[in-house]
Every structure is written in C-alpha cells, then in structure tokens.
C-alpha cells in the first residue's frame, strides 16, 4: 500500500542501527549532523515516528535523533525487557552520538531519560520529561495482589512459548481502530501515519512491530521509588504535562508534585489543549516550549 | 531434556529417577545442575536439576535481562514439564525457590532455601546513588565461570526488599531455611518457615518430610 503522509511529518534525513550489547537499536534523524544533538525517547508501545512532527520543528537548530526502544519499531526484540536495559540502550545511543546532548522523553521514555541522564553526567546537559512521571502510587489492594500478579506473569511466560507472535489483522485500518479506541484524542489521520510505521505487513495480514512480550514484567519495583532517582538528577529538567484529562494521564498534581519536589533544577510547564500525547497533539507548541527552555539555559 | 521458556531454550537434567515424589534443584549464581554432586541420591524419588538461562547447558537471554522473577519463569517452565515438585535452591536459586513456592503454591508442597552465590542480591532496596543501568553493568564481585553469561552478574545487584519476600512467604505452603550460623541477607528472615540444620543431606530429609 502507499506510504501514508501526515501534514508536518517529515521523512527522516538519516537512519542507523546502534549496537547495545546483542540488541540493535534503530534510530532516525532530522537536521544537521554537526549541530548539537537532542535524543528523543518515545513512550511504551510507541516508536521513533512519534517525533515525526516535533523532531523537524527542532531540527532547524539541532541534530534530532529519535530511537526505537528495544522491542518497539524497527529495533530488535529481546528475550525479556527491563527498565535498566532500556536505559542501557539510551546510554549506547548517546555514546554513539558522542557529543554533549539533551534528552527528550515521553511517558515511559520521559522517566527513562532521567535515569539516562543520571548514568551520563558528563555527556547529558539536560532532560525534557513529557508526562513521564510514573504510574499512580501502589494502593494497599495492589500491594496485597503482589503474588497474584507474579502468578499472572508466570502464566504469560508460559503462553509465549505456545504463541510467540501476534495474530495478524486483515487490514491496517483495523490496527488504526484498535489504537484509536485506546487514544481517542489522537486524530485518525495521525494514527494512519503513526500506526503504519508501527506495523508490518506479511502475506497473511498486518501485525504490530512491538513485541508481545513488552507488557510482561514482575519484581519489587514501586512507584514511590521514582522520587529517589529524581532527587539525584544533576542536570536541569523541563517537566511538561498537558492541560487535558486523558486515558493515560496526567496524574493529579498531588501525586506528581511530591515526586518532582526534590529535582534540584526544575522548570515545570503545562501545555494548553493537550492530553497525555503532548508532542503528538501539539507538536509546534511543544517544540517552541523546548526551544525556549534550551535557549534560556 | 530441552525445554522452551518464552524465547530461551533450557537444559533440565534428570539426576535421579527413583520412584517417588519429585524434587527440582535450583543452583546458585554462576552454577549449574552439575553443582549438586551426590546429593540427589539422598532424595526418595525423582530429582531434576535445572540450568538457569545464561548458565550451564541453557541458552543466554538475548538482551541480557537477568532477574530473579525471570529465573523463576525458567523454574516454572520445568514445573510445567515435571508437575508438582518440592524445590531446593542455593544462593539466587533459594530466592527463586521462595518466589515460586508463593507464586505456584499449588505445584510446590515445600521449598528448602540454601546459602550460595547470589543469595543477597543488591540488598533490601536499590542503591539510589546510581542509575539503574549501573546495577546491571557492574562487574561481578568475583569473576563468573566461563560459559556463564557475564550479564548474570546483575543478580548481585537486584533489590530484594523483605516486605516483598514476605508476600511470597505468606502464600507458600512450607518453607525450610538452612541455618549454619553464617549471616543471611535481610529478605531471608522474611521468608519465615522453619529453620533446619545439620548437613545438607539432613535438610533434604526434612524437606522430604515437609513435602508429604
């Protein structure tokens, strides 16, 4: 089928694969390769093209690199996923860029760029965290279900051996509709572009590129650990949320505020009219916000 | 025999095929099912020895995510093959045995926790002063043996909060802790159950009784 276009979405100027251990990380780029770099990290289940409108807006002054997290987009699948290995991939791509840079992340990627910056105090100059302030606190009920969740995780692991890949969908439009049901604020036109790059076509139909294993995880991690990492971030952070309620956030300020309270160099901003997917819904305004913040630093 | 855990092929050895209840042995960090020596002869039934992913005859994990919960997935794959079984685990294998004794209580009548390499993990909470990636990239305390995936050293740095371990202890049917006077990490006391002493053979005998 024809490659869909979207107003403002620009084909990347370059792409590459970067080795992170035995996993290859796919990156796309916009802008002058000699300009100061911005590394963009997408959210869970998304991919590098989530920055296809924002990136070119920033590319007038910056080399904009966007990665596909492992298990997403055109990066390799792994045997299992963890927060730490996602950070290792960000570190690998930042070292591949090899010059001082800023990190920009959305949702899952927003949390990850904070830990990426902490791992690279000499290379990373600052981070932009777009509504990536973690899940809600763990309730007493969640806590009581710890073993039950782990048993469910074991069941999922058993199921993978029986069915290692997605069932195919007949048409791309069915995938678009699936995504639209989850993110009703995103336009059909954008999702037709975005889902096209997040899906692959085979003889028997369309499948997500994202690994079905991605949602699986278990362990002692708790949302109340987030603030400990934030408090040790040495670089400046621009923390962005949208003004509108959405399926995935933003969390109430009564939760986000205390998590951010310990960040030593913090700027907070709210983007009017955007939900959780701030950079997809309002790419131009998001770009201006980031450029102004970079300029002021 | 070869087993498939998600995308990793595992080696499960039959160490004793006497008629009787099953025992699954879980080795410590850097080890393999060969570590158990003559011990399987002390068990009154079938004995299986698993090689965790990245160890012994099992494949490494692409992407290198070595976490106790995933090793528990390795052991659960073995339980899917052999059915209900008592567990005995050493070092990281002891922590994995506790997770599985709670998470698969219907399949695990009793678990014996033994000392060994990887018992403490990274302690009761993360080291907040470093990025999570440093916990998986830190060199091992002593070199891991050849043939063991070097990334398994992450199992010396994962946090093991006692309050987390206590959830699994409460869900488990029977837990036996092998005590020999040497120090144990904070999660160990939260595993509850009963202390056993003497030789490891004595502890295995106590496990056989507890598993009835």
Topology:
The complex is a heterodimer of chains A (297) and B (212).
Chain A: E1 14-20, E2 23-30, E3 37-41, H1 54-58, E4 63-67, H2 83-97, E5 101-106, H3 108-119, E6 124-130, H4 140-144, H5 146-162, H6 172-182, H7 188-197, E7 199-202, E8 205-208, H8 226-230, E9 237-242, H9 253-260, E10 266-271, H10 278-281, H11 283-296
Parallel strand pairs in A: 3-4, 3-5, 5-6, 6-9, 9-10
Antiparallel strand pairs in A: 1-2, 2-4, 7-8
Helix pairs in contact in A: 2-3, 6-7
Chain B: E1 2-5, E2 8-17, E3 23-26, E4 46-51, H1 68-82, E5 86-90, H2 92-103, E6 111-114, H3 132-137, H4 162-171, E7 175-178, H5 186-190, E8 194-196, H6 200-210
Parallel strand pairs in B: 3-4, 3-5, 5-6, 6-7, 7-8
Antiparallel strand pairs in B: 1-2, 2-4
Helix pairs in contact in B: 1-2, 2-4
Report how far the terminal alpha carbons of chain A are from each other: 45 Å
Straight-line N-to-C gap of chain B = 27 Å
Main beta sheet of chain A: 8 strands, mixed
Number of helix segments of chain B? 6
Rounded Rg of chain B = 16 Å
What is the fold named in CATH at topology level of one domain in chain A? Rossmann fold
Query: What's the number of structural domains of chain B?
Result: 1
Low-confidence spans of chain B: pLDDT under 50, at least 5 residues?
none
Sheet with most strands: strand arrangement of chain B: 1-2-4-3-5-6-7-8
CATH architectural label of one domain in chain A: 3-Layer(aba) Sandwich
This entry's quaternary arrangement is: heterodimer
CATH homologous superfamily grouping of one domain in chain A: Alpha/Beta hydrolase fold, catalytic domain
Give the SSE string of chain A: EEEHEHEHEHHHHEEHEHEHH
Rg of chain A is 19 Å
Structural class of chain B: alpha/beta
Kindly state the percentage of residues in helix of chain A: 25-40%
Short descriptors:
heterodimer; A: 297 residues; alpha/beta; Rossmann fold; 10 strands; 36% helix; B: 212 residues; 6 helices; 19% strand; globular
Task: Kindly describe this structure.
The complex is a heterodimer of chains A (297) and B (212). With 297 residues, chain A is of the alpha/beta class. Chain A has a domain at 11-136 and 223-297: Rossmann fold. Helices cover 36% and strands 20% of the residues of chain A. Chain A contains eleven helices and ten strands. Chain A has helices spanning 54-58, 83-97, 108-119, 140-144, 146-162, 172-182, 188-197, 226-230, 253-260, 278-281, 283-296, and strands at 14-20, 23-30, 37-41, 63-67, 101-106, 124-130, 199-202, 205-208, 237-242, 266-271. Chain A has an eight-stranded mixed sheet with strand order 1-2-4-3-5-6-9-10, sandwiched between helices. A two-stranded antiparallel ribbon of chain A has the order 7-8. The longest helix of chain A is centred in the middle third of the chain and has 17 residues, at 146-162. Chain A starts with 13 loop residues before the first strand and ends with a helix. The mean pLDDT of chain A is 95. Chain B is an alpha/beta fold. Chain B has a single domain (2-210), classed as Rossmann fold, CATH 3.40.50.1820. Chain B has six helices and eight strands. An eight-stranded mixed sheet of chain B has the order 1-2-4-3-5-6-7-8, sandwiched between helices. In chain B, strand 1 (2-5) and strand 2 form a beta hairpin. Chain B is globular and about 50 Å long. At the A-B interface, helix 2, helix 3 and helix 5 of A face helix 1, helix 2, helix 3 and helix 4 of B.
């Amino acid at each position: 089928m024809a490659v869909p276009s979207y107003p403002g979405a620009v084909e990347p100027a370059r792409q590459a694969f970067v080795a992170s251990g035995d996993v290859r990380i796919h990156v796309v780029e916009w802008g002058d390769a000699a300009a100061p770099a911005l590394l963009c990290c997408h959210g869970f289940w998304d991919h590098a093209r989530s920055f296809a409108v924002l990136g070119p807006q920033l590319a007038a002054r910056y080399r904009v690199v966007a990665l596909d997290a492992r298990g997403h987009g055109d990066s390799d699948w792994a045997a299992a996923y963890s927060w730490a290995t996602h950070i290792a991939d960000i570190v690998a791509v930042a070292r591949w860029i090899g010059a001082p840079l800023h990190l920009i992340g959305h949702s899952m990627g927003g949390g990850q760029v904070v830990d990426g910056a902490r791992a690279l105090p000499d290379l990373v100059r600052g981070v932009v965290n777009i509504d990536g302030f973690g899940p809600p606190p763990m309730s007493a009920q969640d806590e009581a279900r710890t073993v039950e969740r782990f048993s469910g995780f074991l069941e999922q692991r058993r199921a993978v051996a029986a069915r290692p890949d997605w069932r195919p969908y007949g048409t791309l439009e069915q995938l678009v509709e699936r995504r639209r049901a989850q993110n009703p604020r995103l336009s059909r036109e954008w999702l037709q572009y975005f889902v096209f790059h997040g899906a692959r076509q085979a003889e028997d139909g369309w499948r997500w590129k994202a690994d079905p294993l991605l949602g699986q995880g278990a362990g002692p991690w708790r949302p109340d650990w987030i603030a400990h990492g934030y408090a040790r971030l040495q670089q400046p952070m621009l923390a962005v949320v949208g003004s509108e309620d959405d399926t995935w956030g933003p969390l109430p300020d009564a939760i986000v505020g205390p998590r951010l309270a310990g960040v030593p160099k913090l700027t907070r901003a709210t983007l009017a009219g955007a939900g959780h997917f701030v950079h997809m819904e309002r790419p131009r305004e998001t770009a201006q916000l980031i450029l102004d913040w970079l300029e002021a630093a | 025999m070869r087993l498939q855990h998600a995308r990793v092929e595992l080696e499960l050895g039959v160490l004793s095929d006497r008629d009787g209840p099953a025992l699954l042995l879980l080795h410590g960090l850097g080890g393999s099912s060969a570590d158990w020596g003559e011990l399987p002869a002390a068990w009154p039934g079938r004995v299986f020895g698993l090689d965790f992913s990245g160890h012994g005859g099992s494949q490494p994990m692409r992407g290198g995510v070595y976490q106790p919960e995933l090793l528990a997935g390795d052991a659960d794959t073995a339980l899917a093959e052999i059915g209900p079984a008592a567990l005995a685990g050493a070092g990281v294998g002891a922590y994995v045995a506790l997770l599985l004794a709670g998470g698969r209580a219907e399949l695990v009548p009793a678990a014996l926790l033994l000392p060994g390499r990887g018992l403490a993990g990274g302690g009761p909470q993360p080291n907040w002063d470093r990025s999570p990636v440093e916990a998986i990239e830190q060199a091992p305390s002593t070199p891991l043996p050849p043939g063991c995936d070097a990334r398994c050293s992450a199992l010396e740095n994962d946090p093991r909060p006692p309050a987390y371990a206590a959830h699994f202890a409460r869900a488990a049917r029977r837990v036996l802790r092998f005590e020999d006077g040497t120090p144990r990490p904070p999660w160990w006391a939260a595993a509850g159950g009963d202390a056993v002493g003497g030789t490891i053979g004595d502890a295995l005998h106590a496990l056989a009784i507890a598993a009835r």
